[in-house]
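R.M. (postdoc): so does anyone remember the format we settled on? I'll just put the structure tokens first.
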């Protein structure tokens, strides 16, 4: 079969690899129908995150079950399924607490020795605990919205919950990538009264407005902090979603939070921790929560809203490619000619 592999910075290839097979009783083999490229994949593409030459890549996919191991009880061949970006056993104490990303037997697609989501098929460990079965009659037109739940929508939701987005709150979102935009949508879904997005790309902030943002701040650094303060009568935002992961973005997020507010951070850190000003947080009672989103815990609730037509994160996909075109999709996202690329098989 064919799959996307990375050989080094800016070197993404689609190559022939071994077909996945059942290795353990809890495994399933899933034929991928939809996948996508994540902003976090770009850190490997740019050489910031280390990868072994020839390592698989991609962690978001929807597909159809082709085979199941003898220990799989909740799935059968032909089922359409959604995979969160982390596999988990579904039975440990962490999974029971809804923190599937800390499952001792869990892992991330594309790790060394595992299949990546940007390929024709994937071996899924702990299939019963990992995969979410979709209704038999789900409309194909909903697949982009469903796919977004595998990572970016669940991650935006995690940030909104961590920050305490709620009815009546003012929310600021730092970052206009796919996760930040989904954070806007998540805050709006949770009833936020006013949403301010900090972003500099007009096409992306336009999506943010359709998702519920009221104000756009294009400045950075102290200028951005001043703009948010001015918009909020000098107080700042009750809830701040940090969706970038740099020192500057974290410093901005903490600074635009209202006294007694909270920052929900989900941007993968890649700039150190100097942006965490503990003195400012202490003096102003600003809380900091977040981390890797336990998408498996959130998907059932979010999926119900997608299927009912109440939630549609699909506008984050602005480029659709076939598998052979995935290297070009990486280049388009890296050069900001695309926000998020959907791979249709």
């Amino acid at each position: 079969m064919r799959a996307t592999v990375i050989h080094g910075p800016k070197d993404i290839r689609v190559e022939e690899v071994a077909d996945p097979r059942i290795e353990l009783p809890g495994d399933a083999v899933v034929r991928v129908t939809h996948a996508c490229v994540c902003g976090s994949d770009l850190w490997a593409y740019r050489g910031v995150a280390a990868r072994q030459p020839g390592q698989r890549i991609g962690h978001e996919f929807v597909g159809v079950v082709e085979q199941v191991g003898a220990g799989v009880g909740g799935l059968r061949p032909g089922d359409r399924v959604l995979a969160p970006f982390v596999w988990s056993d579904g039975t440990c104490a962490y999974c029971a607490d809804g923190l599937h990303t800390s499952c001792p037997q869990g892992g991330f697609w594309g790790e060394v020795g595992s299949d990546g989501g940007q390929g024709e098929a994937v071996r899924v460990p702990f299939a019963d605990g990992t995969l979410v079965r979709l209704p038999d009659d789900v409309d194909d037109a909903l697949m982009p919205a469903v796919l977004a739940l595998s990572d970016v929508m669940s991650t935006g939701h995690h940030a909104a919950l961590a920050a305490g987005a709620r009815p009546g709150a003012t929310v600021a979102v730092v970052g206009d990538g796919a996760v930040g935009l989904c954070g806007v949508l998540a805050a709006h879904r949770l009833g936020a009264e006013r949403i301010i997005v900090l972003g500099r790309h007009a096409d992306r902030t336009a999506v943010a407005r359709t998702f519920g943002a009221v104000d756009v701040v294009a400045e950075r650094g102290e200028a951005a902090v001043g703009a948010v303060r001015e918009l909020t009568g000098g107080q700042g935002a009750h809830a701040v979603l940090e969706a970038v992961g740099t020192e500057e973005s974290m410093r901005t997020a903490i600074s635009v939070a209202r006294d007694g507010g909270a920052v929900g951070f989900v941007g993968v850190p890649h700039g150190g921790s100097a942006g965490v000003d503990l003195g400012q947080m202490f003096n102003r009672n600003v809380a900091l929560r977040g981390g890797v989103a336990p998408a498996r815990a959130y998907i059932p609730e979010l999926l119900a809203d997608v299927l009912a037509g109440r939630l549609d994160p699909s506008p984050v996909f602005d480029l659709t490619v076939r598998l052979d075109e995935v290297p070009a999709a990486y280049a388009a996202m890296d050069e900001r000619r695309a926000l998020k690329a959907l791979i249709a098989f």
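R.M.: ...and that's the designed sequence above, right after the tokens. Also worth knowing: Residues 156-290 form a domain with the Rossmann fold fold (CATH 3.40.50.720). The mean pLDDT is 96.
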